[in-house]
Amino acid sequence: MDRTDVVLGFLIGITGMLAGSFLFVTLFTPYTLTDGIFIIKQSGQLPKVLSIGAIVNLGIFFLLLKFKKDVMAKGVLLSMFVITFFTIILYYI
């Protein structure tokens, strides 16, 4: 297992989650990005928005499997575990 591919997959997973959250805030809320994030954070909905943004990683994971990049797909899976842990911590704080 090549460590750089796992790290690259992890970074792809984190970037995918951020891109999905960005798309959710800009497309499905009437606010701009900065206002939307501020309002979502104040209302305590940030863990939910991060979880919705992480759905993009599902497509990335299967796309990497299709192109035989199994080690990168493991990195995306690792990023999902980290995102889940981070979301649980944010939910209970």
Structural write-up:
By secondary structure, the protein is mainly α. The protein has one domain. The protein is built from 5 helices and no strands. α1 (3-28) packs across α5 and α4 (56-66) runs antiparallel to α5. The chain is elongated and about 40 Å long. The model has no long low-confidence stretch (mean pLDDT 93).
Report the C-alpha radius of gyration, rounded. 14 Å
Apparent shape: elongated
Strand content: under 5%
Mean pLDDT: 93
How many domains, in number, for the residues? Answer: 1
Helical proportion, percent range: over 70%
N- to C-terminal separation? Answer: 36 Å
Give helix and strand order, one letter per element, not per position.
HHHHH
Structural class: mainly alpha
Tally of DSSP helical segments: 5
Largest sheet: none
How many beta-strand elements?
0
Low-pLDDT segments: none
